[in-house]
Amino acid sequence: MAAVVVSSMMGKMYGLCFHAVRQTAGLKAPWLLHRRAFRISAVHRQQPFDSSLEKPQFPGASADFVDHLEFIQPNVISGIPVYRVMDRQGNIINPSQDPQLSKETVLNFYQKMTMLNTMDRILYESQRQGRISFYMTNYGEEGTHIGSAAALEPTDMVFGQYREAGVLMYRGFPLDLFMAQCYANADDLGKGRQMPVHYGCKDLNFVTISSPLATQIPQAAGAAYALKRENLNRAVICYFGEGAASEGDAHAGFNFSATLECPLIFFCRNNGYAISTPTNEQYRGDGIAARGPGYGMLSIRVDGNDVFAVYNATKEARRRAVAENQPFLIEAMTYRIGHHSTSDDSSAYRSVDEVNYWDKQDHPISRLRHYMTARGWWSEDDERSWRKQSRKTVMEAFERAERRLKPNPELLFTDVYQEMTPGLSRQRDSMWRHVQQYKEHYPVDQYEKQ
């Protein structure tokens, strides 16, 4: 009962106080409104407001307001131009863009490009003869490999897709190891565990190639961020095709590298076809270079069949990537003359005339040869002699690889754990029991002994 009385009294007191406050507020309200109106009126008279000068304050983008409805058309801006240094006959177009490379350097470019071409032909034929299981050629794209590789430092890290054998060759990877990898013999650095053309070399800072498309793009962004934190004056270059740029990994890698400000060069080989998909079915925008600004990256489109243009663009991108800690996107326009791989027949989706045009009229090797011939650095005799010598060198490495034994089967169970786990031990024992039981089907004499 007492509690009810106290509650009733408190309610009446609260009501009286609220009524008093409301009355006081009611008396002051007209005066406050009048004063506020006077201040607003004074501000308007002193600082007239012009809405046309108002700027957006959104944190997500910087732009101006407009008062008319208009969607941005993809073809309003003309296509990004293609940077080149020499024309198809090897003539320097703008002398200020000539990299002024020495005769020895240019000859090295040419010899590496033609050696790669020779190796491609021999290994391609070896797959057709059933000697190796798979192969991918680099026909038509040699200029993108050698031009970019020459512009890098040996300590820079390379993430390849699967068509960058020339980059590894320029860095000094020997023919014997190329052959060993494709033949999966005992000399293979990967111990026979990868399918052909999936090269890798820790000593040359070339990360082992993996089959899933575009996985190397976000990995390269992470590696570049690590190098930036270590402040080692090193850069990362990541190669991929225009088809791989359609993968989600590409967008993740672009965005991470830009926001984390990584010293990274994204190098897109736009060779016209992603397996059997032409570019007009791959994307609707202006190629791959046009995507760079959307992610906040500096971009350039270069003639991938002009080894000097590729060299200049990569060298400048590398310099600025390290000095400014930011990513760059290079789109090298080229053409895949060969089939996508030995599992592909490109005649099903493109004409022979189209392929012949790029092979005969606009090939990076012939363009560089024109340049050297005009300077008296190369002759027909030099060409015949070098072709004969390079083929002999490749064939000798090829024959050595064929004679070499396969890796010991025990290596299937190593390099995962420091010590063999019980589960792996049981699998190994089971494998050997199976091989012994059906030894007529397993030529163990072709494998190295333990």
UniProtKB/TrEMBL annotation:
Species of the source: Oryzias latipes (Japanese rice fish)
Compartments where located: Mitochondrion matrix
Assigned GO CC terms: branched-chain alpha-ketoacid dehydrogenase complex; mitochondrial matrix
Descriptive protein name: 2-oxoisovalerate dehydrogenase subunit alpha
Enzyme class label: oxidoreductase
Keywords: Metal-binding, Mitochondrion, Oxidoreductase, Potassium, Thiamine pyrophosphate, Transit peptide
Stored CDD domains: TPP_E1_PDC_ADC_BCADC
Enzyme Commission number(s) from the entry: 1.2.4.4
Keyword Transit peptide attached: yes
Reaction catalyzed: N(6)-[(R)-lipoyl]-L-lysyl-[protein] + 3-methyl-2-oxobutanoate + H(+) = N(6)-[(R)-S(8)-2-methylpropanoyldihydrolipoyl]-L-lysyl-[protein] + CO2
Family named by the database record: Belongs to the BCKDHA family.
A GO BP entry: branched-chain amino acid catabolic process
Pfam family, any one: E1_dh
Subunit structure: Heterotetramer of 2 alpha/BCKDHA and 2 beta chains/BCKDHB that forms the branched-chain alpha-keto acid decarboxylase (E1) component of the BCKD complex. The branched-chain alpha-ketoacid dehydrogenase is a large complex composed of three major building blocks E1, E2 and E3. It is organized around E2, a 24-meric cubic core composed of DBT, to which are associated 6 to 12 copies of E1, and approximately 6 copies of the dehydrogenase E3, a DLD dimer. Interacts with PPM1K.
GO MF terms held by the record: branched-chain 2-oxo acid dehydrogenase activity; metal ion binding
Residue span(s) of domain Dehydrogenase E1 component: 111-410
InterPro entries registered for this protein in UniProt: Alpha-ketoacid_DH_E1_comp (IPR050771), DH_E1 (IPR001017), THDP-binding (IPR029061)
Co-factor requirement: thiamine diphosphate
Function in brief: Together with BCKDHB forms the heterotetrameric E1 subunit of the mitochondrial branched-chain alpha-ketoacid dehydrogenase (BCKD) complex. The BCKD complex catalyzes the multi-step oxidative decarboxylation of alpha-ketoacids derived from the branched-chain amino-acids valine, leucine and isoleucine producing CO2 and acyl-CoA which is subsequently utilized to produce energy. The E1 subunit catalyzes the first step with the decarboxylation of the alpha-ketoacid forming an enzyme-product intermediate.
